[in-house]
């Protein structure tokens, strides 16, 4: 009985203190998407935090411009270091198949910032979506 009471008190303390322990973390990524030698225009790019114990958090969503460039930025308060994923949804290389190819890349942890006024920018470079990426899947409801 004492164990249950101690466990209950511990859960209550963690519940009340966790908002105070959360640290806002910021991430910003820029890059360009191409398909073979042409810019990928109006392509969906999303920034997500990959969670181990609960549902993932979408941090931001943008579309590439007429030159294939994207700039995406997001933030989240968390006790743990964010595990940020950049997701691209494309038909590059397979226009006739159902759904879009979903490509997920991990943003290096070293590019997370704790200060909004000094956000580190990760340069994702030029990515040719004609490549087949490891772990790539299909997504019909992105």
Automatic annotation (TrEMBL):
Signal sequence segment: 1-17
Keywords: Secreted, Signal
Localization: Secreted
InterPro entries on file: Transthyretin-like, Transthyretin-like_sf
GO CC terms, sorted: cell surface; extracellular region
Family: Belongs to the nematode transthyretin-like family.
Protein name, per record: Transthyretin-like family-containing protein
Organism: Strongyloides papillosus (Intestinal threadworm)
Organism ancestry: Eukaryota, Metazoa, Ecdysozoa, Nematoda, Chromadorea
